[in-house]
Write a structure and sequence with these properties.
This protein is α/β, with parallel strands linked by helices and 270 residues long. The protein has two domains: 20-184, Alpha/beta knot (3-Layer(aba) Sandwich), CATH 3.40.1280.10; 193-267, Helicase, Ruva Protein, domain 3 (Orthogonal Bundle). It contains twelve helices and seven strands. A seven-stranded parallel sheet has the order 3-2-1-6-4-7-5.
Length: 270
């Protein structure tokens, strides 16, 4: 999905303390790259790699990262899962099964909300572990986590690829306190969506209604006087609900004028 604004900083200063994403024994470089891309989409920038199967660094990871170079270039490499998490204070392990261990199990939303609570003000450093593409985390990996993060999906088809899982969890974390949402939909930025045309005023919409209702009256659209108030109200509600711009109103004025002119010419009326 395109839409990156290259004039805006990629992540720095925008988001609260993000969890480290730990990929345990990832198999393919391109999957690591796609994970990095997914992370940076959500302002998550710390990537830790435990013994990637095809080695590191990886050219295929860079190509698949689609510009997430900051994440890939700063990725930290570890020989064991224990080394990758030893400086962390709270770790979630993503797995579809509890592995027979007594651990709290959280959804992506609940687990990432808990991370927000724990690292509020930077008091705790947290991480989220993901296993290899084919097998997932091993029991020894899960044993190092404080709790399990589970993504409830269609039980008949619940398989996610690695980058999808990282994106879903990273977005769940971001959406707990998403600063980009406020920036995107700020009232002062409404012209970004409307282009050069300002929102239509109520008076402009009212004038459009006057033109349309006059034409409907002339054409005999209203079958009886009793119908007119209700139908007029419905039309008015439609126009006011549509979020019209001033340009929309001008365009419809021209459309109505053209239709009225053609009807008159077709009937011999001027």
């Amino acid at each position: 999905m395109a839409g990156t604004n290259s004039s805006i900083a990629k992540a720095e200063g925008k988001t609260p303390l993000a969890p480290a994403i730990i990929l345990v024994r990832p198999q393919l470089g391109q999957n690591i790259g796609m994970c990095a891309r997914a992370m940076l989409n959500c302002g998550v920038t710390e990537l830790r790699l435990v013994k990637p199967r095809d080695g590191w660094p990886s050219e295929t990871a860079g190509a698949a990262g689609a510009g997430a170079d900051d994440v890939l270039n700063n990725a930290k490499l570890f020989e064991t899962t224990a080394d990758a998490v030893k400086d962390l204070e709270f770790v979630l392990a993503t797995t579809a099964r509890n592995r027979g261990m007594v651990k709290e199990i959280y959804t992506a939303e609940a687990g990432t909300a808990l991370i927000h609570q724990r690292n509020a003000g930077g008091v705790q450093k947290c991480g989220i572990m993901f296993g290899p593409e084919r097998t997932g985390l091993e029991n020894d990996d899960v044993a190092l986590a404080d709790a399990i993060l589970n993504i409830p999906l269609n039980p008949g088809f619940s398989s996610l690829n690695l980058a999808q899982a990282v994106l879903l969890v990273s977005y769940s974390w971001l959406n707990n306190d998403n600063p980009f949402k406020e920036e995107l939909y700020a009232e002062s930025d409404i012209t970004k969506f409307l282009g050069d045309s300002a929102p239509a005023t109520k008076d402009e919409i009212g004038n459009l209604m006057t033109q349309l209702l006059g034409a409907l009256d002339t054409s005999g659209f209203f079958r009886s006087p009793e119908q007119k108030p209700t139908i007029s109200r419905n039309i008015s509600n439609f126009f006011h609900r549509a979020g019209m711009t001033a340009q929309d109103v001008r365009t419809l004025h021209g459309v109505f004028a053209s239709l009225i002119g053609k009807r008159r010419r077709g009937t011999g009326e001027e």
